[in-house]
Amino acid sequence: MGMLKFNGLDKMYEAKTMKNVRRKIVIAGGLGFLGRTLIKHFANGAYELVVLSRNENELPHAKVVVWDGIHLDQWAAELEGAELLINLAGRSVNCRYNRRNRCAIMDSRVFSTRVLGQAVQGCRKAPGLWINSSTATIYKHRFDSSNDEKDGLIGAHPDAKDAFSVDVALAWEKAFREIDVPGTRKVIARTAMVFGSEEGGVYEVLRKMVCFGLGGKVASGRQYVSWLHEKDFCGAIEWLMAHKEASGVYNLCSPCPLTNREMMKTLRDAIGVSFGLPAMRLILDVGALVLRTEVELMIKSRRVVPARLEGAGYVFTFPCLQGAIKELEQKDKGRK
Ligand SMILES: NC(=O)c1ccc[n+]([C@@H]2O[C@H](COP(=O)([O-])OP(=O)(O)OC[C@H]3O[C@@H](n4cnc5c(N)ncnc54)[C@H](OP(=O)(O)O)[C@@H]3O)[C@@H](O)[C@H]2O)c1
User: Fold this and answer.
1) Which residue of 37, 40, 63, 92 sits with most ligand 1 atoms within 8 Å of its CB, as the best mutation to test the pocket?
2) The whole model's pTM is what?
3) What is the Cα–Cα distance from 167 to 106, expressed in whole angstroms?
4) Is residue 278 helix, strand or coil?
């Protein structure tokens, strides 16, 4: 009887401590746009959030641990027992692709992936799931049909001026595939443009263009745009955590890509701007030079669909752009 009572108390104590154990998520490069989006989503008390950053910082809902994205160091201990490791580290692609920037874009992605691999291999209790970011840009510039994970065409196209970006995506995925981490589920997230309300995202830029009367079609306007609402970005990550059978490549994008012309019109309608100056190809080339960015980001036809997520039953909160923009605009008005 006494023994039974002791066991019961023991169980109660165990249950109580279990309740206090928070599920650990480590976000490498987590101070950027997508990282902050994830932190906002997971900051509900159930998760212990750790960010790996090159800079010291204090956040209300996450611990920031310094790393350099290249060398194995004490930060690696943070990966012990994590449920999820997600790598979002990488120099922004929104810049001119000169020699220096090209090196930084490539190296920051490949080196961070490799060193995380070494850290995972050194863990006593390795992360259950490792999601490494990739990009929907890996797929071929095309208009005829959609690119899914199984039959999608991969590669660059001279019309899209995307040779460098595709090289980066391929090297990034190769570095990830080469790492052998038995016991850790690996997912490559080929993510499309994420539309969200955190600072530094692409929606902010598009919105400004529309407000300044520059929200017309870009080039021919026929190129497809794949996109994803921030809620579905976080939802997909949560889904991947919950579905222990999920591994390999996943396209993280809405099921309804649309043409640039349709996207710009949807934005103008939602924001309430009736006119948008179209950006002809020549103006675009000059504008990109002035804005220190590359035209590829606007002219490439990214017709990508999330066949694996949809096929496995993931239900998108915002499958269509109208609903997604409406929600973001309402949030924007709420803040003012
Ligand atoms: N945002 C999107 O819509 C989107 C879509 C598709 C793919 N992606 C990819 O997803 C990843 C995250 O996107 P994001 O929008 O969150 O990017 P972001 O805002 O530019 O943040 C990326 C983070 O990477 C870290 N970083 C920058 N340069 C680095 C370097 N040289 N070495 C190591 N770390 C470096 C920075 O963190 P610290 O300065 O704190 O170290 C930065 O906060 C990127 O690789 C991006 O290409 C993004």
Assistant:
1) 92
2) 0.93
3) 9
4) coil
Give the nearest ligand 1 atom to 252 CA: 6
For residues 248 and 56, what is the distance between their CA atoms, to the nearest angstrom? 33
Q: Residue 327, Cβ neighbours under 10 Å: how many?
A: 18
User: With b meaning 16 or more CB within 10 Å and e meaning fewer, what string describes 112-145?
Assistant: bbbbbbebbeebeebbbbbbbbbbbbbbbbbeee
Please list, in sequence order, all residues whose beta carbon lies within 8 angstroms of the beta carbon of residue 104, skipping any fewer than 6 positions away: 91
Q: Are the beta carbons of 257 and 227 closer than 8 angstroms? A: yes
Start-to-end C-alpha separation, the chain: 64
The tens digit of pLDDT for each residue in 233-283 reads 999 999 999 999 999 999 999 999 999 999 999 999 999 999 888 887 767
Say which CATH topology domain 17-331 has. Answer: Rossmann fold (3.40.50)
54-72, pLDDT tens digit by residue? 999 999 999 999 999 999 9
- Ligand 1 neighbours by CB, cut-off 6 Å: 29, 31-35, 53-55, 69, 88-93, 104, 108, 112, 133, 135, 191, 193-194, 200-202
Has residue 9 got a pLDDT over 50? no
Strand duo 23-28 + 47-53: pairing: parallel
The pick from 50, 59, 88 for probing ligand 1's pocket by mutation, whose C-beta has the most ligand atoms within 8 angstroms, reads: 88
